[in-house]
Amino acid sequence: MTSPGLHLSGAPFLRKENKGLAEPRGPRALCESAERSSKQNRQVCLSVPYWEQWREEAHAVKRFSILNLDKLLVEFERNATARGAVVLWAKDAEEANRHVLDIVERHRVKTVVKSKSMVTEEMELNHVLAAVGVRALETDLGEYLVQLAGQRPTHIVTPALHLSAEDVGRLFAEKLQEPYTSEHEKLTDIARRHLREEYLRADMGISGANCALADTGSICIVENEGNAGLSISAPPVHVAVMGIEKVIPSIRYLPLFLNLLARSGTGQKLTTYTHIVHGATPGRTFYIIILDNGRSDILRDPASRSSLYCIRCGACLNTCPVYRRTGGWAYGWVYPGPIGAIITPHLVGMKDAGKLPFASSLCGACGEVCPVKIDIPHQLVHLRHKAVNCPSPVRSPLERLIWTAWSWAMEGPLRYRLAMSTVRLGVRLAKFLPWHPAQLGAWTRGRELPEVPAYTFRAWWRRRGQEFAGDNGKSGIATSSPKKEEVSA
After folding, report:
1. % of the chain surpassing 70 pLDDT
2. Which pLDDT band holds residue 194 (cuts at 50, 70, 90)?
3. Which pLDDT score, from 0 to 100, does residue 429 have?
4. Is 128 helix (H, G, I), strand (E, B) or coil?
5. Residue 248 has pLDDT above 60, yes or no
6. Which residues of 82-96 are buried (b: 16+ CB within 10 A; e: fewer)?
7. 284 three-class SS
């Protein structure tokens, strides 16, 4: 069940209303925070002498898990059920929401506390609960802030990365009627004071799962604030929602992923709290909802399958120059950054998200920092190929015409010289046209048309270069260097 106005299948990347791309420099706080986190976390990771060995082992474990997903999920369900959990399956967000609403009705739930869960963001669960009169409160500090502000998270690990302390102080003053302050400790105290009573009053707690352990039927939740522990233990009902890709074969592999996740995500050796939930406790009810929601589509594509290895550490976001400039909202859906660019097209379809793989410079930084060695750059190229060759290609007829003309021009030296002459003439004439170049949209957003040099590099070389020497082995070189303003590409 979904409520009106939800956007469970939309990733309108490059549209002008997406905050981030409409502001070429992006939020300053986000850029600075992401860069600082990337440097710090990278230093912590590389200080471990066997870091690369950990990455190789984690890659192998996740590869085995994904290739044996059917067997491991059945094993997990069997063992979780034996420990008193109720396991429910959902093929998509709508079915998962129906499961949650059935639980709400069965237990007469009126208030919910939630720990951070990206899967429930996919489901837009807060809006679904609100539509039936259930108040759902985010308890992770970053999620709490963006919920107060009426925004989406901008980062996988740190949802309020785009907000400065001053922003938070103004938000608390407006929404909570607290005296303005920008001191971090005071801001944390304010949030703690407002959240503390909510755990005791809540009828149900909802969480995600960082890992699902097939051999024990347990789930693992890692956090730094203690809010997840309170959300899953204080209310009488606990609902855990997890994607099918979260399962790993055995609890003995868990320390490996805990080491990788903490260092790549937050630069810690271990997160402050690690909760392993071994089934339902006496007097409480425990539900586990296992969600597909397009993940099987990724599984069917051998070239994209390894994106299911992701442990949601956010390292690829922090290091990505495109994400730093645009922010998470520009990606139009739940998962921003490089990982969003390779999984969102599968989860919501090429029609809505086919432009996301093009939101990359292909610098390769994301692949270098990924703790489970997902080859993100090659997946971006693979999805670009799919995007332009799918039944409903993402390119407009005009764009296809432009690239067809470009391909024709690159097929021979005479065609290339003719095309470049046309481009040089067009750029010169554009300044005299009655419309502004900004009307070209994404082609000129954030940049100006270049000045055209007097003549090309080839012409300069013919005028000033010297031919290589002949039989005597001597060679000549250009007698002078070109001036920057003289040469064009």
Report:
1. 84
2. very high
3. 78
4. helix
5. yes
6. eeebebbebebbebb
7. coil
Give the residue from 439, 402, 409, 320 showing the smallest Cα distance to 368. Answer: 320
3-class state of residue 256 by DSSP = helix
pLDDT digits (tens, 9 = 90+) for 463-474: 776 544 344 455
The domains of the chain are located at 68-293, 396-433
Is pTM, for the whole model, over 0.85? no
Per-residue CA distances from 284 to 98, 230, 273, 321 (Å):
21, 14, 22, 46
Q: How far apart, in whole angstroms, are the C-alpha atoms of residue 8 and residue 116? A: 19
10 Å CB burial of residue 287 (0-12, 13-18, 19+) is buried
Q: Which CATH superfamily is domain 68-293 in?
A: NagB/RpiA/CoA transferase-like (3.40.50.10420)
DSSP 8-state symbol, 234: S
Going by C-beta distance under 8 Å and a sequence separation of 6 or more, which residues neighbour residue 484? none
pLDDT tens per residue, range 357-410? 998 999 999 999 999 999 999 999 999 999 888 776 666 777 778 888 888 889
Collapsing DSSP states into helix, strand and coil, what is residue 335?
coil
Q: Do 41 and 264 form a contact (C-beta atoms < 8 A)?
A: yes
